[in-house]
Design a protein that fits this description.
By secondary structure, this protein is an alpha+beta fold. It is built from four helices and 13 strands. A six-stranded antiparallel beta barrel has the order 8-9-10-11-12-13. Strands 1-2-3-7 form a four-stranded antiparallel beta sheet. Strand 1 and strand 2 form a beta hairpin. Helix 1 (2-43) packs antiparallel against helix 4 (161-173) and helix 2 (79-89) runs antiparallel to helix 3. It starts with a helix and ends with a strand.
Length: 254
């Protein structure tokens, strides 16, 4: 049972590392995509980038040395507008049941998007009205109040954006190609496997591996295997070790 617990703990750690790293890669990809968009607009200042969501239509262009984004709000789709529509429909809840459920689902999606935002802005107008906006996962400002028709945002065009993106990509390419995961041998041994990629031709790779098993009386073996990348940084493979045993493995690449 002790060995099983150790295996489960290692599997959980690997799983958490995998989820966290995939999240990091998604964020990095979004940043690089965003940099590429800005670079395209910088090189072609007559062009503009248009993004359409359920809440708004955003148009981004380069004006002199600033990034100008104009967000045209769809007034009937803001959180407050939808809430008012639900209240109105509830006057005849039986007849409008399906429409109310649909609007509640849309309200739930918008509420989750608002709560997930790291950038919310509260504005007081000269008429003492309160306006609330937030930045969505695409980096676009969105309305949370019903009485917003248009949002115009100006941001400074940073010259070092491209350099930062190139540095991040270069670091990713110069990784150590270390892999960690679990293996199962045909002699019914199992444990942790740590590998170093020797060379690869996507999606295949050849690796030198260290296999660890029997944690109460630790046993080590050296193996060589061929891996197949089934998704980004996740690999299945088969190999042969110094105990003259064939094994299968699943590993995550770092």
């Amino acid at each position: 049972m002790k060995i099983v617990k150790i295996i489960l703990i290692i599997a959980i750690i690997i799983g958490l590392a995998f989820v966290g790293y995939r999240g990091y890669l998604a964020y990095e990809k979004w940043q690089n995509d965003r940099f590429n968009e800005i670079n395209m607009l910088r090189a072609n200042q007559d062009m503009f980038l248009k993004k359409v969501t359920d809440l708004s239509t955003a148009v981004t262009r380069i004006v002199n040395d600033t990034i100008k984004t104009t967000i045209e709000v769809k007034p009937d789709h803001t959180y407050e507008a939808l809430k008012d529509e639900v209240i109105e429909l509830k006057k005849d809840e039986t007849a409008n049941k399906e429409e109310i459920e649909k609007l509640r689902e849309e309200l739930s999606i918008q509420r989750k998007a608002f709560l997930a935002s790291d950038d919310t802005i509260l504005i007081k107008t000269t008429d003492d009205d309160t306006l609330l906006i937030y930045r969505d996962t695409e980096g676009t400002l969105q309305p949370a109040s019903a009485n917003i028709e248009k949002i115009i945002e100006h941001r400074e065009l940073s010259e070092d954006v491209v350099t930062l993106a190139e540095e991040e990509i270069a670091i990713k390419k110069t990784g150590q190609n270390i892999k960690a995961g679990a293996y199962y041998g045909l002699d019914k041994t199992y444990g942790v496997i740590i590998s170093k990629g020797i060379f690869s031709w996507k999606p295949y790779s050849v690796n030198a591996s260290l296999l660890l098993s029997d944690y109460e009386d630790l046993k080590l073996a050296v193996g060589g295997d061929i891996g197949y990348e089934i998704s980004d940084n996740l690999e299945l493979g088969v190999g042969y070790n110094t105990n003259k045993d064939y094994y299968i493995k699943v590993q995550y690449s770092f």
